[in-house]
Batch of 2 targets.
Target 1
Amino acid sequence: MSIQVFGLPVSRGVAIGRAVLVASSRVDVAHYFIDPTQVLDEIARLRRARDEVAEELVALKLEVPEEAHAELVALLDVHLMLLHDEMLADATKQWILERHYNAEWAMSAQLEVLARQFDEMEDDYLRERKADLEQVVERVLKALMRTSRRTRGEEPSAPVAPRDFGGDDQLILVANDIAPADMLQFKRGVFTGFVTDVGGRTSHTAIVARSMDIPAVVGAREASRIVRQDDWVIIDGDAGVMIVNPSAIVLEEYRFRQRQIELERARLHRLRNTPAVTLDGERVELLANIELPADAAAALEAGAVGVGLFRSEFLFMNRQGHLPGEEEQFLSYKAAVEALKGLPVTIRTVDIGADKPLDRMSTHELRHEHTLNPALGLRAIRWSLAEPDMFAQQLRALLRASAFGKVRVLIPMVAHLSEVAQIRAGLEAAKQQLQQRGQAFSDVELGAMIEIPAAALMIRSLLPHFDFFSIGTNDLIQYTLAIDRADEAVAHLYDPWHPAVLRLIEQTITVATAAGKSVSVCGEMAGDPAFTEVLLAMGLRSFSMHPAQISAIKQRVLRADTKHFAALLNNAMAADDPQAAWRNAAGQR
Ligand code: PEP
Ligand code: MG
């Protein structure tokens, strides 16, 4: 039967493929693809973990006290039987063999399949065995983690291409939640679409999906419970819908739309070498947001004239405590700078915290088990200033990379002048250290992210201390409206058109521009064509976005007359519903 599941549209387009379900588990399970050459080793690792658990269970049986004997021994026997059951043991092996999942993922994928079969059983006794199965799997997962390459701090295996692991069907990831660190793994291009139960429009899962330019739906609540492994699914990233087991006619309709989207993309791509100049001759800078140095090539290919935001925190994720040191960071920044061939690269110092933890953690864990209120906690520059050695390493690495091209350093979540003084002192100290070491660096511009309302309101006081500003609308909206950007329950209130948000953005652009400082928007609004004209009307001439968005935004810029739009701005901003007022006045769809 075909089912439709509704969520939030976060990354456009249509994806059609087989569902790969990433089950949520009580144990923190890493999900990654192993190299095809490691399949047999991974199966051996699984076998060793199973043998270890079998030994544990036998040992437990021997320890059972006399009085509790019969019942407990029977239960442990059930666990031993489940452990060796073909449906668990062999089928888990198949996930490794055919899909190249790591053993932990294979185990939890099979648990999900079996748990559903147990749920459907008529017999109460058998149905209740699901809990036993979960306990057995949990034991195996824990045993596996003791031997995981990642736990030992080793790098995950080399990237794999989708076709490397069997089957010709496209794959779509369906999960309760995907940690940003896992998304990074998936950035290797194995999946052609994502659906998650939780998350908001600007959650980092959504941002990474957009950066991969693949359709995604988040906040689809029950998605991962409704879909089964290998079900055929369609993701409609424009409407925010997932269709499970579509009928042949629906499938055909979506395949047609997919072809149309491809044609439209190819048409837009032809604009990539056209300079972004408005009808009235205003030059507009279209920059790229990247997460890893490897993304720099896509930025150039899309026609970006530089990188407006390199989210360096992605280099720090998933490292199990082994954070990248100065040398490793330097090599990463240098790689990005060199790839940009003389174009500017704006590298943001780590913005770790909130929904971007260092290690794999679901949003649920973050909210409920680790920090009271992570979005208001020790994140971004606050974290860097609390870790002065780490901050110094990063500043030195950034400065050293500046010897190879144009580097601009961007500081996230600035809100206090006391922080500004510490940042400046840190940068001076880093320069001195490099001079003492005799290591080269060039002049770097220093910029502040304007993403806390306090910073937007005190922009005049920040002007003398920074060379440029970048408005992080994702967080600016979150903090202005007190809406957790990752929480689908309040996603309907996350409103970029809110008058308070628009005023803060406009004031920042006006004041910074009047002072001769460059100002850019690097939040998701910059890559959303619905905001291009209103941002141009506010005086914005620099937009930074996912490379995939550049052509679509360029098309809007080429058709815009900034003077015409600027004349409409005041009325729209004064309206109770600026979005409706703007659409009416600007004749926008
Ligand atoms: C923002 O907040 O708008 C931004 C660009 O930074 P991030 O999304 O990484 O928090
Ligand atoms: Mg931000």
Target 2
Amino acid sequence: MSHTTYKNLIGGHWVPSRTGKTFLNINPANSDDIVGEFQASGAADIDDAVAAAAEAYKTWRLVPAPKRAEILYRCGELLAERKESYAREMTREMGKVLSETRGDVQEAIDTAYYMAGEGRRLFGQTTPSELKSKFAMSVRMPVGVVGMIAPWNFPMAIPSWKLFPALVCGNTCVIKPAEDTPLSTFNLVECLAEAGLPPGVVNIVTGFGPDAGAPLVSHPGVRAISFTGSSEVGRIVGQTAAANFKPCSLEMGGKNAMIVLDDANLDLAIEGALWGAFGTTGQRCTATSRIILHKKIAAEFTRKLVARVDALKVGDGLDEHIQMGPQVNQQQIETSIRYCEIAQKEGAKLLTGGSVLEDGVYDKGHFFAPTVFGNVKPNMRIAQEEVFGPVVSLIEVESYEEALEAANGIQYGLSTALYSRDVNKAFQAMRDLEAGITYINAPTIGAEVHLPFGGVKQTGNGHREGGTGALDFYTTWKAVYVDFSDTLQRAQIDNAD
Ligand code: ADP
């Protein structure tokens, strides 16, 4: 079957990489299906893209924010028109089921509309001056050329979280999509271009992390970096950016706990656990990977959950009947295998799953059985380290306090959930769970675009995507003073008496 070769987008032109090399984007559910061929770029391509973005910045920063916003709004409308075809292409390149890829495109649409609204806000402050006939205000200024490095699990939503706020604030961008899922970024940027985005304002350079991502991070012309991915790579990105005093937003791992207390609606909690643990085949930074169960309900919850997991339909996400798709690539499968071995060696009990699905309909894809471990102790590696696959651990506790200790006893702090009907416990959990996100009676996944998204501890470095937190990252504050007294007035000196 023939396939399309995609080039880099630099300065509004489609250009091949200077390396002369390409790589294939292959459907993780079916290795016969080549989604496309993409440029395996290197540092010289990044140089070209940064130069194009720097040139475009000269004029883009002067476009009034409401006009920039109109382009985002039109982009949102185009995405809505093409939602179905983009969702299908995303399922082909990433694997997750169609209902979820439709959700991924919808998240980009929501972000487009939300950030378009910001074009007429981008509020700063006005405040009185300490001196007579003097005016003081603060305004948001764009940062300049921003470098963006995206992961594969939300191939359109995450680029939209980065691009749309950056654009409405007046920045220009160079984005490097994940090597497994570049097409969805192309689709997003195609809509931006058709919506009227000038050439060079967004540039796409595809390729592998060390070859194309690393030179973007260290490039002196790039003023800020936004990265979403593994903690391992995030550490390298953060250290490189720090060496140049470059603002850097890092969004990394999670080991998200769902606490189920003895007064919880168990059926609701089981629905939540299924969606939280096996949605996106467990490959979300917010996936529910630890379920902390009060001992009074642990046996019933476990029995019912395992029965539901056994009934999950695993297969090609393009089939509407399928509930869980493949893992994105062989490397992820190997990680799942490794952690299943580690868990069993540590004494965890495999309740279901734990193996690769290989035969029949599975023989051309990267499928792993949805997996549940019981008898997990909070300090085991399976309860501490991110698997990023369809593997969930059940931990039994005797009290809310013990549950809280287990939930907080990890290096990560992204998302958490509590199932209980006790309003006091719910408010305690909202206060005490160490995480950027807490859900009450809902699973650990399901962020909305107008709220801050990000985590504490080793999940991130303090920045937030979504909501106004994104504006804080993509702008820098300028304080402006206007003295209309026609005299020299000295702050802290001339108003002393
Ligand atoms: P995952 O394990 O989810 O694939 P990674 O952190 O490996 O997460 O990848 C996230 C993004 O970071 C991808 O776009 C990848 O190409 C990029 N990346 C990987 N290594 C580096 C690096 N050394 N410098 C910059 N970007 C990198």
